Amino acid sequence: xxxxxxxxxxxxxxxxxxxxxxxxxxxxxxxxxxxxxxxxxxxxxxxxxxxxxxxxxxxxxxxxxxxxxxxxxxxxxxxxxxxxxxxxxxxxxxxxxxxxxxxxxxxxxxxxxxxxxxxxxxxxxxxxxxxxxxxxxxxxxxxxxxxxxxxxxxxxxxxxxxxxxxxxxxxxxxxxxxxxxxxxxxxxxxxxxxxxxxxxx
Length: 201
Prior knowledge:
Distance between the termini: 96 Å
Structural class: mainly alpha
Strand content: under 5%
Number of strands: 0
Order of helices and strands: HHHHHH
């Protein structure tokens, strides 16, 4: 009887090392596509197909807002930042006749006063209203499904004429990348002058 109990215990312990059947097991494999720019986050699904998409949307804006509106906003802010970056540097070395020169470009608005600054805001509002045919809210801006974000029909130099779809996509990618860089650049330059209290150059 003792030998039978010992043999049973030996066989039971040996069976613990035998390969187990996988039938009915639960798979824990992740099937989600991961972001290229933030590989620890899943790839945002609503940014696919847009030029310049690198899977960067850590706050999930594309899940909560209209993607066309977000793209239009990015393009317009990028274009404004490219102009602002150039103007910020240029203002340090060139002054509009009739105005006092200041080395710190952050002080430019105080030199010209409130009236010219308000005129810029007003006429930009008029331009925004005109280019969107009065549809300036997020809910109505893309009521025309054929409207392409950022395409205002403004091409006085004809840079888009005769371009293939691939060539146009390449130009749009350059604009997006330069706009993103300019947004970082103008923010950095403004804060440099604030923090140091000195001119940029």
